[in-house]
Sequence to fold (611 residues):
Amino acid sequence: MSTRAPAASETSHLTDILQGLRAGAHELDRDDLARRLDSWVERLDRPKVRVVVVGPFNQGKSTLVNTVVGAPVCPVDDIAMTAIPTIIEYGPAPEASLAFDVPGENRSTRVPIDINNLRKHVMDHAAKTGSLDGGKIEVTLPAEPLRGGLVLVDTPGVGSAVARHAVTTLALLPSADALVVLSDASQELTEPELSFLRQAATICPIVMCVLSKIDLTPHWRDVEAANRQHLESAGIDATILPVSANLYRTALTLDDTDLAAESGIPRLIERLQRDLLPRAVTSLREAAAEEAASVSNHLTLVLQAELETLVRPGEAAMLVQTFEDAQAIASDLNKRASKWQAALNDGFHDVIHDVEYDVRDRIRSVGRDAEVLIDESDPADTWETMSQWTADAFAEAIADSFVWAHERCEHVATTVAESFRLESEIRLPQIPSIDTSAMLTPVAGIDPIRTRRMTGSQKLIGAMRGSYSGILMAGIITSLAGLALINPLSVFAGAVLGGFSLRQEGANRLERRRNEARNAVRRAVDETIFHVVKETRTSLTDVKRQMRTEFEEAAEEFRQSLNRSVESAKRGAGTSAGYRDARTQELTERLTKVRQLADSAQALSVGPRAQ
Ligand SMILES: Nc1nc2c(ncn2[C@@H]2O[C@H](COP(=O)(O)OP(=O)(O)OP(=O)(O)O)[C@@H](O)[C@H]2O)c(=O)[nH]1
Ligand SMILES: [Mg+2]
Fold:
């Protein structure tokens, strides 16, 4: 991997350009454009690269995050699991706060907590409110590796044991710049890990696989080779970095640079700092340069309108008319009948319909598989494993639908942007970010089954009941032949009937258990579909609303620019001959400056890209 280090001077040059354009926007009374540039100046000043660390339980995620930041912030434990995400970024002082959803209210809140006791605060909060919904810890640390804008997110383990966690972790990905997936060197990547990696890689652009705890496994190189093969076969584009946090700690204690290099940790930090950060800063600069170009287009439009009428006074009336025609098109842009609005409505109508169908189909198919398993086994033996399997399969189905919905929304955004561009012929702002994570509803638990196998005493009573009627029936018949009621024949008949009724009762109970299990699965299928469909609809409608707002703002900016250009053109047409030269000169200078600023921004954003 090679990158061009983003020189701080280039970023500061870009900031100067944005500020130059901002001054130009002010001169034309365009505070809306000035505000947009302000927010980009701020982002360039403090770039952030969010790296989310994920993986199955107990693989060393929290240890790795602590090792990179050089402080024991995230609780590490063999048994107690990380419960909610911890987000660590650079700050002048070590501070922590706990953010969570307020139960019963549609808002979240944040309270400061002691940075040295994060786990206790989370546990106290869970005990007090009975929930960890929307919970996350936000930490600031004066740690050198974070200074450039690296933000590390430690997450709860994903894996087959608690499917809900996999779903929660996926929800963090739309806002991630890179993903670090941990898997320890004791075994090759498993099927659920590969499935998670496949889903995650679709949403997150950069994925790094970390092979952890290599100090514990002498044959880690074989595991690394096998993992490389698995990733390749699954079509997942990710680098593998073998590391050992323990070796690194020892190396620091012994001040042994060779051992430190062997631990793989310096290489990982270098990857994060020297590759990832510059890459993210480069894309940020590119986006800022796009904004500069967009703003300069708006300013040019207004300046050019006046200039044209000044230098071609004979055609002034025609020029004013041209701008007025364009103004009429711009006014139509925010009407429901406009092409981009139709593309947005149709696009989302299809996405919502298709995703709902997809979710239903996937979850019903899990339900059908579960029923086949129930028919082939005795739920008394298999229910615990089976209900867990079903919950996991539901979670995987929801996650797959989520990934698909995300891709579909991106496609709609591109289609809408294209029709907006064709309709308005202006350069667009960025395509809005898409966050469909609200559709990742945690999977509800599956009911337990109540009908158990017969206990010893139940078997005895059942057998006695059957044999008693057998003895009685045979005894009455044989008594006609002069035998006593209880005789060898009636006892034999009692034993046969007792055994039969015992088997019958066992079979009835097995059928009752299967029925209960089938009903529990069907209820879980219905409830899961109900919740996921509801959340999907809400989440996608929300994405649609955000997208509409962003495009409407772009249309409004365009409308404003055309209003101003009509005014400018009229002003140019009305300028007396005596002032024309001076005004032409002034406008030419301003226009040249705006164009130069946009060209310089463009030149700064173009350069060798990271591989
Ligand atoms: N030998 C060895 N042990 C490690 C290494 N990294 C972590 N561990 C141990 O692995 C155990 C789990 O570490 P954590 O960092 O809590 O793992 P985690 O992935 O955050 O676990 P969850 O939050 O439960 O998912 C702890 O006992 C660590 O001391 C390593 O590089 N080598
Ligand atoms: Mg952890």
